[in-house]
């Protein structure tokens, strides 16, 4: 699975949660917080590549550490970070 996440499109953390939950098909019980995001990302069991753009956007700073940590813990999750 290949997901493009352009943080420049998102003005709020809720918008990021909505996007990632829909694109990555998180379960209905996804808690929409950083801990729940990390849990769902580390549970991914199929090859998944996240291409991250707009990483200079303020909202991205909240999510980047969680995404990086989850990718370190889950061999199926990889990140490609593009800086503008």
Structure commentary:
By secondary structure, the protein is α/β, with parallel strands linked by helices. The protein has a single domain (2-81), classed as Barnase, Chain D. It has helices at residues 13-23, 34-42, 58-73, and strands at residues 2-6, 48-53, 77-81. The protein has a 3-stranded parallel β-sheet with strand order 1-2-3, covered by helices on one side. The longest helix is centred in the C-terminal third of the chain and has 16 residues, at 58-73. The mean pLDDT is 95.
Q: Secondary-structure blueprint of this entry?
A:
Blueprint: E1 2-6, H1 13-23, H2 34-42, E2 48-53, H3 58-73, E3 77-81
Parallel strand pairs: 1-2, 2-3
List its salient traits.
alpha/beta, globular, single chain, 3 helices, Barnase, Chain D, 84 residues, three-stranded parallel sheet
Q: What is the count of DSSP helices, taking H or I runs of 4+ residues?
A: 3
Uncertain spans, ≥5 residues at pLDDT below 50? none
What overall form do the CA principal axes indicate?
globular
Tell me about the biggest sheet?
3 strands, parallel
State the name of the first-level CATH class: Alpha Beta
Strand order of the largest sheet: 1-2-3
Strand content is 15-25%
**Helical proportion, percent range:** 40-55%
Question: What's the CATH topology name?
Answer: Barnase, Chain D
């Amino acid at each position: 699975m290949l997901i493009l996440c352009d943080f420049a499109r998102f003005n709020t953390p809720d918008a990021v949660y909505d996007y990632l939950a829909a694109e990555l098909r998180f379960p209905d019980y996804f808690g929409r917080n950083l801990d729940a995001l990390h849990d769902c990302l580390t549970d991914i069991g199929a090859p998944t590549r996240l291409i991250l753009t707009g990483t200079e956007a303020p909202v991205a700073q909240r999510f980047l550490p969680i995404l990086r940590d989850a990718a370190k813990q889950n061999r199926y999750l990889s990140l490609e970070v593009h800086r503008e």
